[in-house]
């Protein structure tokens, strides 16, 4: 079983080889050699390999965009949320894959390490859940002679503290137990306010603050970027990849606020920094007459949905519909109406038999 | 014009956002109304949902999935309740009925089976318990997915004399009861006994496993248990059948059926057994593993008896299993060291991935599963927490869609309720005990008044992290609540619940005192405002804890409490069966449990509230009346809330409201210790301890007392001699609290020196010494050393 499955057109094999070497240099196993052993069923072998992989890299070239094989494999990776696309030629990716963020290696000389290659490696690392440990763009501590005992002691203390924290939180925070070492860092950006009336940006900031607070409150062992740092990016025309890289996070939460009469409609989404793909989203509408309670409730409903998407390394995102408000005691649903007003239905009992 | 109106409305809305909204205050009535929603289950074909609602009657609604319309339904008859139900095929539901029994709070399972069809075919009883040749109680063992017309049931013949099959110790088998899909209540036991006349109950045949036609009630014998009172486990085709039970006193054994013969798989000492709970294949079964301290999940080889450990938590027992539709496959197990936690049998399975995602999506909640479709791709979950009685969702493992269905919440909003947090406390003898602490939901003083709750039943139960209306009622009225699981409680392994009678009796009392002291030391509660609260056996335990650590508590509330164990056991009425179960069927002669509150009334000098139902058949109200008379004769302030028409736990809305009002009023009036009140401990002669000490002990204890002296001098002087920057004023020191903490901090050292018998004397000494220290420090004098005599 390989960590990474590389999907490409056979004609591009020579151009893909350096890319594979970069991945293998990171210590990841890569399935890309299509020399299937004699007797093995070709299609099944590929199918097994892609099923087993934790990350699918698709190389878009003038040849591959027309390959049904590559399209199928890319589709598989996309559906499972583990696709990292790479652009090697000046082409438009096929319909359904025209995401804003691609690793752009069109001008790579196949030798030197460039920021684009680093970003690509970081994207694969994120996909594999190891980005923080391996991403070369992040600064690493330089070992110094003569201080190894100190470093080891500090590591030991850090380890004990981490274990203690993990133990304290055990059972409390499902899904993040194994990630208390700070993987999956998230930043919340100010929400965009869509309104004809100027001067309402504060609502976007206020909501983002609420999301930030709720994330910290519900998932205290999750690595969340500081609010002030994140808010520095307000109004800057930077793409997700750039903001994420500058903040040193793997995921961004961003959103949009629409105001209509007394209704506030908040769309929020979780974006994977490396690929630019949306990993999960939430749409919550509330009545503004509830004042700040509406904001608090929106965050209380949306944040767990985004966090659930964050926790999914494989498979489709969990979708929740009709979540009752934390402030509601009787949400509206057909079954709830039965609970509140059962008299609308008159049934027989088992009758006198019970008293026999 | 339209644009102007919209702008105006928007401005109003924005203005509203600036105005904080305050929630409606919580009232006692919010806790009087209990949730009416019992459960929701999905049909095997996924086309229908069945919802059980309980009010004056129980109603089962059948709802069509596509448009959520009500297809059909059924009500319970007079005095009848539906305890639980199971979809046995896409058209048929089997219901486990119960009867309302006067004097019991919970309806009594009758061991009968009702059938209900969506198409109306053969609705009614398909198995009655009273039959021409005896009384049998039927329990569903499992469905047969490939045979829609049949299920497996086990039939127990009720024995008139002695204990029936429904009284078991909390041990290997009783633990299996918790995770096997059966419902048994104390009331059920008594109801069955009531219906079991001598003529009907002469038979004491071994239990049988039967294949039951779900429409006609016709049964076919599959197996007869090799042991009396045995239980069965079978695969989903009834080809592999296992039994387990007690072949002889003190042992637990498992058996596999080979042809018409049983072969024994294993035999263990009772309490150390391997109990099969699900058949994985013809060769292997899942089993509860009690060999090590806490109960874990293991695989049992049915031919060799070899056991392969799969999972065990080192703190808590497994307490709940999730199985797929067939019941043969265990998917996950819940254990609750503090918050509910889950172990997945296969982490990568679609169920595990989806369930895990749900737990992340509902943080600070637990996600339980009520039912699966036959293909196991869809299931219904109940999401509950300390502040939410339960929301139900329909979940699809393929699409990961989760659709909200219905909520159990009543008039209370989760955001208005208080958070319960697991706590651990080290006792004076160095043992770690578990409990839950709930800070008041109302903002108030940093150290709120504290109500210490002791659970009902000494052995087979514990407090779990879940919604508790009594806790929330108290928290909403400004009280912190400590729910303590003293030793003897279930769920934390053998060493926690085990021990000799004498040791448990004493530890139970001391653990309550130690946990309370810890809350005070940790400044979570006001040391001068602490009251005990216990229901049923908890009432007994609360009063005994009060006697143990009287200086700690300002009052005690006992609800349906037990005050005279001798009297209770002399009354050989139906409830004595229940008491046998509660107290492990002990021979009461020379047992430490003989020590009863009624005989130690002279040691109770704090206000007492007694609440009792006149119809209570678990603990007759005569117990409470006798106790009330004894307390009054002793001059103890007593508040009685006796409701003539109520059972062990008050059910009627008016009595419940009255009880809640009286409880809050009593706490407000009495939780604060009367400063001039004479304490029992202060009148106890400390010289008694001096006389009990050996020379070595005296010397070691003197050193402990000297350490206490130095400690108190240090903490009081450090504070007073510290210079403050100009302009700041010093908050007066809470001398009683600081001194109490300093004195208690040396308990462990003193414990190393003293025996259990000497400890009460030391408690009294501490009380006296603390008062002396407090008096000296508050007057600005340097405190004297405590010098032991002799």
In short:
The complex is a heterodimer of chains A (356) and B (790). Chain A has 356 residues and is an alpha/beta fold.
Topology:
The complex is a heterodimer of chains A (356) and B (790).
Chain A: E1 4-7, H1 13-25, E2 30-31, H2 42-52, E3 55-60, H3 68-79, E4 83-87, E5 103-104, H4 115-127, H5 131-134, H6 148-169, E6 186-188, E7 192-194, H7 201-218, H8 227-231, H9 240-247, E8 251-260, E9 263-272, E10 278-287, H10 292-311, E11 319-321, H11 334-340
Parallel strand pairs in A: 1-2, 1-3, 3-4, 4-5, 6-8, 7-8
Antiparallel strand pairs in A: 8-9, 9-10
Helix pairs in contact in A: 7-10
Chain B: H1 2-18, H2 29-32, E1 37-42, E2 48-54, E3 58-64, E4 70-75, E5 80-87, E6 92-99, E7 108-109, E8 113-117, E9 124-127, E10 130-131, E11 134-143, E12 150-157, H3 172-179, H4 186-195, E13 208-213, E14 219-224, E15 231-234, E16 241-245, E17 251-258, E18 261-269, E19 274-279, E20 284-289, E21 296-301, E22 307-311, E23 318-323, E24 330-335, E25 341-344, H5 350-361, E26 366-372, E27 378-385, E28 388-396, E29 401-407, E30 420-426, E31 432-438, E32 450-454, H6 469-476, E33 480-485, H7 494-497, H8 501-521, E34 530-535, H9 537-548, E35 555-559, H10 565-570, H11 575-582, E36 608-613, H12 621-634, E37 638-643, H13 653-670, H14 680-683, H15 687-692, H16 695-721, H17 735-744, H18 747-753, H19 759-778
Parallel strand pairs in B: 32-33, 32-34, 34-35, 35-36, 36-37
Antiparallel strand pairs in B: 1-2, 2-3, 3-4, 5-6, 6-7, 6-8, 8-9, 10-11, 11-12, 12-13, 13-14, 15-16, 16-17, 17-18, 19-20, 20-21, 21-22, 23-24, 24-25, 26-27, 27-28, 28-29, 30-31, 31-33
Gyration radius over CA of chain A:
25 Å
Q: Which sheet architecture does the biggest sheet of chain B show? A: 8 strands, mixed
Q: Which strand-content bin applies to the residues of chain B? A: 25-35%
- Write down the overall geometry of chain B: globular
Q: What low-confidence regions of chain B span 5 or more consecutive residues with pLDDT below 50?
A: 1-22, 160-203, 571-590, 676-687, 719-727
Termini separation of chain A comes to 66 Å
Number of separate strands of chain A: 11
- Content-based structural category of chain B: alpha+beta
Please state roughly what percent of the residues of chain A sit in beta strands, choosing from under 5%, 5-15%, 15-25%, 25-35%, 35-45% or over 45%: 15-25%
**Annotation field: number of helices of chain A:** 11
State the strand order across the main sheet of chain A.
Answer: 2-1-3-4-5
Query: How do the strands line up in the largest sheet of chain B?
Result: 30-31-33-32-34-35-36-37
- N- to C-terminal separation of chain B? 99 Å
Share of helical residues of chain B:
25-40%
Radius of gyration of chain B: 29 Å
Assembly of the depicted chains? heterodimer
């Amino acid at each position: 079983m390989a960590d990474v499955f590389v999907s490409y057109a056979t004609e591009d094999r020579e151009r893909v080889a350096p890319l594979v070497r970069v991945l293998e240099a990171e210590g990841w196993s890569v399935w890309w050699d299509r020399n299937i052993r004699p007797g093995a069923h070709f299609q099944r072998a590929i199918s097994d390999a892609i099923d087993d992989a934790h990350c699918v890299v698709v190389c878009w070239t003038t040849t591959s965009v027309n390959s049904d094989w590559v399209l199928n494999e890319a589709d598989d990776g996309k559906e499972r949320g583990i696709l990292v696309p790479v652009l090697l030629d000046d082409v438009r990716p096929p319909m359904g894959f025209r995401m804003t963020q691609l690793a752009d290696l069109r001008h790579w000389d196949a030798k030197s390490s460039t920021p684009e290659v680093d970003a690509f490696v970081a994207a694969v690392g994120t996909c594999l859940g190891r980005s923080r440990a391996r991403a070369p763009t992040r600064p690493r501590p330089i070992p110094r002679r003569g201080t190894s005992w100190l470093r080891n002691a500090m590591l030991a203390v850090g380890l004990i503290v981490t274990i203690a924290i993990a133990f304290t939180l055990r059972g409390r925070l499902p899904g993040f137990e194994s990630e208390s070492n700070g993987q999956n860092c998230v930043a919340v950006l100010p929400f965009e306010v869509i309104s004809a009336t100027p001067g309402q940006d504060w609502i976007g900031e206020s909501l983002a603050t609420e999301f930030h607070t709720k994330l910290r409150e519900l998932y205290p062992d999750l690595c969340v970027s500081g609010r002030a740092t994140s808010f520095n990016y307000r109004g800057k025309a930077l793409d997700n990849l750039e903001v994420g890289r500058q903040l040193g996070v793997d995921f961004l939460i961003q959103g949009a606020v629409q105001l209509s009469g007394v209704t506030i409609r908040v769309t929020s989404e979780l974006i994977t920094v490396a690929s630019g793909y949306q990993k999960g989203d939430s749409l919550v509408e509330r009545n503004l007459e509830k004042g700040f309670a509406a904001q608090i409730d929106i965050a209380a409903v949306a944040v767990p949905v985004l966090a659930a998407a964050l926790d999914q390394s494989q498979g489709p995102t969990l979708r929740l519909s009709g979540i009752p408000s934390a402030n509601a005691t009787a949400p509206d649903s057909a079954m709830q109406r039965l609970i509140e007003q059962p008299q609308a239905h008159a049934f027989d009992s088992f009758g006198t038999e019970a008293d026999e | 014009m339209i644009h102007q109106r919209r702008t105006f409305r928007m401005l109003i809305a924005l203005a509203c956002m600036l105005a904080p909204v305050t929630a409606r205050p919580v009232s006692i009535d919010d806790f009087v109304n209990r949730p009416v929603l019992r459960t929701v289950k999905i049909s095997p074909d996924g086309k229908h949902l069945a919802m059980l609602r309980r009010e004056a009657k129980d109603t089962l609604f059948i709802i069509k999935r596509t448009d959520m319309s009500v297809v059909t339904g059924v009500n319970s008859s007079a005095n009848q309740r539906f305890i639980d139900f199971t979809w046995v095929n896409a058209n048929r539901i089997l219901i486990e009925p119960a009867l309302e029994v006067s004097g019991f709070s919970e309806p009594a399972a009758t061991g009968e089976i009702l059938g209900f069809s969506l198409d109306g075919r053969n609705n009614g009883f398909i198995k009655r318990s009273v039959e021409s040749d005896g009384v049998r109680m039927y329990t569903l063992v499992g469905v047969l997915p490939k045979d829609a017309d049949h299920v497996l049931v086990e039939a127990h013949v009720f024995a008139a004399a002695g204990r029936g099959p429904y009284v078991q110790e909390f041990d290997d088998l009783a633990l299996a009861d918790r995770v096997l899909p059966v419902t048994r209540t104390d009331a059920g036991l008594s109801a069955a006994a009531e219906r079991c006349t001598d003529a009907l109950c002469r038979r004491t045949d071994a239990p049988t496993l039967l294949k039951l036609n779900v429409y006609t009630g016709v049964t076919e014998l599959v197996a007869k248990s090799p042991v009396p009172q045995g239980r069965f486990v079978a695969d989903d085709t009834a080809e592999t059948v296992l039994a387990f039970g007690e072949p002889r006193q003190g042992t637990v054994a498992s058996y596999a059926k080979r042809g018409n013969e049983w072969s024994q798989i294993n035999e263990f000492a009772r309490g150390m057994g391997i109990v099969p709970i699900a058949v994985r294949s013809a060769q292997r079964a899942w089993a509860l593993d009690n060999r090590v301290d806490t109960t874990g999940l293991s695989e049992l080889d049915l031919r060799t008896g070899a056991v392969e450990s799969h999972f065990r938590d080192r703190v808590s027992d497994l307490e709940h299993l999730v199985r797929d539709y067939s019941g043969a496959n265990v998917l996950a197990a819940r254990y609750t060291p503090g918050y509910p936690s889950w172990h997945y049998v296969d982490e990568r399975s679609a169920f595990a991935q989806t369930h895990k995602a749900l737990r992340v999506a509902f943080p600070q909640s637990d996600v339980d599963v009520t039912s699966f479709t036959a293909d196991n791709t869809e299931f219904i979950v109940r999401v509950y927490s300390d502040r939410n009685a339960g929301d139900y969702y329909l979940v699809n493992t393929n699409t990961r869609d989760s659709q909200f269905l219905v909520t159990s919440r009543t008039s209370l909003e989760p955001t208005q309720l208080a958070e319960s947090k697991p706590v651990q406390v080290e006792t004076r003898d160095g043992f770690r005990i578990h409990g839950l602490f709930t800070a008041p939901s109302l903002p108030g003083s940093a150290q709120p008044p504290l109500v210490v709750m002791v659970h009902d039943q000494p052995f087979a139960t514990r407090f779990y992290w879940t919604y508790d209306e009594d806790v929330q009622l108290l928290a909403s009225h400004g009280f912190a609540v400590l729910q303590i699981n003293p030793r003897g409680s279930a769920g934390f392994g053998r060493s926690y619940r085990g021990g000799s009678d004498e040791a448990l009796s004493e530890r139970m009392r001391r653990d309550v005192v130690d946990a309370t002291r810890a809350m005070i030391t940790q400044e979570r509660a006001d040391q001068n405002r602490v009251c005990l609260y216990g229901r049923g056996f908890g009432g007994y335990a609360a009063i005994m804890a009060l006697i143990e650590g009287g200086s700690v508590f300002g009052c005690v509330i006992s609800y349906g409490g037990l005050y005279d164990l001798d009297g209770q056991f002399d009354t050989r009425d139906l409830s004595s069966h229940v008491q046998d179960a509660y107290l492990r069927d002990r021979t009461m002669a020379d047992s430490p449990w003989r020590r009863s509150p009624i005989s130690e009334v002279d040691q109770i000098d704090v206000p007492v509230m007694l609440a009792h139902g006149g119809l209570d058949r678990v603990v007759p109200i005569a117990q409470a009346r006798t106790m009330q008379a004894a307390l009054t004769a002793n001059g103890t302030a007593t508040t009685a809330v006796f409701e003539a028409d109520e059972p062990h736990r008050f059910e009627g809305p008016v009595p419940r409201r009255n009880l809640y009002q009286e409880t809050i009023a009593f706490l407000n009036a009495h939780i604060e210790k009367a400063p001039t009140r004479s304490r029992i401990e202060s009148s106890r002669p400390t010289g008694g301890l001096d006389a009990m000490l050996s020379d070595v002990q005296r010397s070691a204890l003197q050193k402990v007392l000297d350490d206490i002296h130095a400690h108190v001098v240090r903490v009081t002087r450090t504070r007073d001699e510290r210079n403050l920057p100009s302009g700041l004023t010093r908050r007066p020191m809470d001398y009683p609290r600081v001194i109490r903490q300093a004195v208690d901090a040396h308990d462990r050292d003193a414990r190393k020196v003293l025996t259990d018998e000497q400890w009460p004397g030391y408690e009294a000494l501490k009380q006296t010494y603390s008062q002396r220290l407090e008096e000296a420090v508050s007057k600005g004098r340097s405190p004297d050393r405590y010098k032991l005599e002799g």
